[in-house]
Amino acid sequence: MKTIFEKSNGVDGVSIGECELGQFFPRELLRKDSIGLPQLSELEVMRHYKELSDRNFCIEKGFYPLGSCTMKYNPKVNEFLASLEGFCNLHPLQSDEDSQGALELMYKLQETLKQLTGMDAVTLQPAAGAHGELTGMMIVKKYFETKGETNRKKVIVPDSAHGTNPASAKMCGFEIIEVKSNEKGQVDTEALKSLLDKDVAAIMMTNPNTLGIFEEKVLEISKLMHDNGSLLYYDGANFNAIMGWTNPKLMGFDVVHLNLHKTFSTPHGGGGPGAGPVCVTEKLKDLLPSPIVEFDGNKYIRQYNIPQSIGKVRGFYGNFGVLVRAYAYILMMGKNLKLASADAVLNANYIKEKLKGTYDLPYDEPCMHEFVLSGEKQHHQGVSTLGIAKRLMDSNCHPPTVYFPLIVHEAIMIEPTESESKEVLDGFIDTMLKIAHEIEENPEEVLKSPQTTPIKRVDETLAARQPNLTYKGN
Ligand SMILES: *Cc1c(COP(=O)(O)O)cnc(C)c1O
Hints:
binds pyridoxal-5'-phosphate
């Protein structure tokens, strides 16, 4: 590199490239013109990025009741710990001897997740919930292959499930069979019974489910499945509702994924990074991806010798930084994890009770950490759920999850989490009531929202049909 600068007689990339890079790269691949980067001072660049970041909505700026996503507070100390030099400058190819601290953290996190889920073994490799589902379903598939039951090609998924569930099972080559929910928003066990035969490999369930309702018949369902020789997969995205109160093992599940970035506090707006560890019972232990971190009584090691492993599901060992944050959060909370779940459930029920007279509540049951309203009434008055979501943005509130789960028309799915104060919850309730009132009085005005955001109302249909993703727009 030194010669490149010595021989260069200009500061722009062109002369440097022309002068020396041709020695290393084919000439025809070298850039002929300047790339036209603006000449800016460091301060100006910093201000540019700060301004862009200010346009973002984030949990630091306001309430973020995004149902199914658990946008809880992410303690800043987690960031500090994840950025410690010993953690973030460690290379994944360094030896076990050189990586004892990191391996110890991973081992202890595995042990803690075992305790929380009741399961017997854990892999920390998957990088997201959906990736955990894929890993879990690969394990289910291999389990039946090793038993010679290759006829088990069907996976049952409730109609309230998150879309990743059927998608993950399908990616493993399973056929998806939908089971419907009953009038209480729970799996209809009679319908389930009628679907069971010897070709069913598993059911994928979320409990509490995506309506925020606890599946009361889960023990009956697990017995039905196991009697049929099938397995039960637990989508742990809603684990924030039950930490320390019960666990998937007690409910009869065989495979579980957790979303560390949801339940165990890692910022995940914008899609990542995440971690979706998979926990399994004893009989599935030998199928886990390798390596698993073990402790031999003296030191921590990466164990590659896993007899029937499905193989690796990710380069190296997962999103290590997320694991550090999750473990820091768990240690910091200790027994209060149980309290976090209790508060998350209390907060959701509080908002639900305050809003249910004004908005439709299709499943009027005590909820767990989230609940689903319907904006049907408001839709008839001229503003759909989408409009309500946009209006919330004018009150410094991130919209809830909308139009999911699919079984609720005009769905508005609200998850306040445990980390908000009563004042914030009351402020949100007031805003939701005010919006309903505005829709009755003057729906036209509501349809102009959002009015306070850097980008106002956009034509979402056009954007989806003709996406223009080029820089400066073309
Ligand atoms: C978020 C979520 C998932 C998928 O998790 P990702 O980490 O986003 O891949 C699966 N199921 C449910 C119920 C979820 O809420």
